[in-house]
Amino acid sequence: MEEHEKVLIDPTLEGKTREELGLKPFTCTEIHSNVMGIPVFITEESIAKACRREVVGSFEENLDNKTSP
Fold first, then answer.
1. What gap in Å lies between CA 39 and CA 49, rounded to an integer?
2. pLDDT tens digits, one per residue of 37-62
3. 1-17: pLDDT as tens digits
4. What is the C-alpha to C-alpha distance for residues 23 and 19, in angstroms, rounded to an integer?
5. Given the DSSP bridges, would you call strands 30-35 and 38-43 parallel, antiparallel or unpaired?
6. Cα separation of 2 and 60, whole Å?
7. Cβ partners under 8 Å of residue 50, min gap 6
8. What is the value of pTM for the model shown?
């Protein structure tokens, strides 16, 4: 998403890596927010910890309800 926005602003950046675009390297999916001036980062791990669950499994869409649990 961030890469797409940078390329829309400057099309000459097409095909560059995240580092070449001046972005942080991708490590995991994060939700970025700002609460009362304090930056907040929510990751899959923090959600799992709050729910007292392990971070395992994956999400798959368009599965047949009869064959998938």
1. 20
2. 899 989 988 988 898 888 887 777 77
3. 788 888 899 889 898 88
4. 5
5. antiparallel
6. 24
7. none
8. 0.45
Q: Encoding tokens for residue 61?
A: 């869409």
Does residue 20 contact residue 7 with C-beta atoms inside 8 Å? no
Count other C-beta atoms under 10 Å from residue 11's C-beta. 8
**Residue 63: what residue type?**
L
**DSSP for 29-42, written as a single string:** -EEEEEETTEEEEE
Q: Tokens 């995991």 identify what position? A: 28
The C-alpha angle 6, 32, 15, rounded to 5 degrees, equals 25
Assigned token pair, 42 = 């929510």
